[in-house]
Write a structure and sequence with these properties.
Pfam family, one: ATP-synt_A
Radius of gyration: 23 Å
Function: Key component of the proton channel; it plays a direct role in the translocation of protons across the membrane.
Number of helices: 6
InterPro entries: ATP_synth_F0_asu, ATP_synth_F0_asu_bact/mt
Shape: globular
Structural class: mainly alpha
Subcellular location: Cell membrane; Membrane
Protein name: ATP synthase subunit a
Largest sheet: none
Strand content: under 5%
Helix content: 55-70%
Distance between the termini: 42 Å
Number of domains: 1
């Protein structure tokens, strides 16, 4: 695991903190934006592109190898993410939703790959860009299919609601659709990856410090506990990484459906 140990005075250990998310440019004196997270994001995108190319460039009647994996991923996204929200429109948006799911999953898994060990979504800019892209498509679809007035009317209309109550309800639902939904989309992914990375770094640094830097009979127990917790948290992270990619794609499908159908 990526371990950061800070020494403020001889023999003193300090837990890793926000320094885990601060990166200098890869090329000294080069572009400030070309950092490790950017390189990992590009690597993840290249891996997804390579997987899809290997799976679907020359499909066979009986899928094998990469095609089997690609078709499994496609079927999962179609049946578990696209169709429940988009219904008959699911196939039209499968390219986008499959790309979102696989890209976020690849970015997340970078956090447990040796020598890389940084989940891209733990850097808030990356999930923000994806969420803003989905948000823009949602609004564009709503305006295109229903017009500005029709789209807004579809969002605020609630059958059976008294007229006087719309003064309270309308601002709340409009804020949820146009403000809150954007933030909840990317913050959920970012917060989980950020916290998971901190926890893994914390326990791995405990193990490294007490087993290698300051090995003592009493400290050995703490070091072993740190190693054990690192393994447990990493296993939990694998599950959370998949779950967060799934939830991010599910929300994307729901937002696309809201634009298409003109409803909140």
């Amino acid at each position: 695991m990526r371990t950061t140990i800070l020494i403020t005075s001889p023999g003193q250990w300090q837990a890793p903190g926000l320094d885990l998310f601060q990166f200098a440019p890869i090329i000294p004196g080069g572009p400030a934006w070309l950092t490790k997270p950017v390189l990992i994001a590009l690597l993840g995108a290249a891996a997804v592109t390579a997987l899809c190319w290997a799976a679907f460039a020359r499909p066979k009647l009986v899928p094998r190898g990469w095609q089997s994996l690609g078709e499994y991923a496609y079927t999962f996204v179609r049946d578990q993410i696209a169709r429940p929200s988009l219904g008959k429109d699911a196939d039209r948006w499968m390219g986008l939703l499959l790309t979102i799911f696989l890209t976020v999953l690849a970015w997340n898994l970078m956090g447990v790959i040796p020598l890389i060990q940084f989940p891209v979504a733990a850097h808030i800019a990356f999930p923000l860009v994806l969420a803003v892209s989905v948000y823009a498509i949602k609004v564009w679809l709503g305006v295109r299919h229903h017009g500005v007035r029709g789209y807004l009317r579809g969002i605020v209309h609630l059958p059976g609601l008294p007229g006087w109550a719309y003064g309270i309800y309308a601002p709340m639902i409009l804020a949820e659709v146009f403000v809150t939904s954007l933030f909840t989309h990317f913050v959920r992914l970012f917060a989980n990856m950020f916290a998971g990375h901190i926890l893994v770094a914390f326990f791995s640094s405990v193990g490294f410090w007490f087993l290698f830097e300051r090995l003592t009979p009493l400290g050995a127990g703490l070091g072993l506990l740190g190693v054990a917790m690192t393994v447990v948290i990493t296993a939990l992270e694998l599950f959370i990484q998949f779950l967060q990619a799934f939830l991010f794609a599910v929300l994307a499908a729901m937002y696309l459906a809201s634009g298409l159908h003109g409803e909140h």
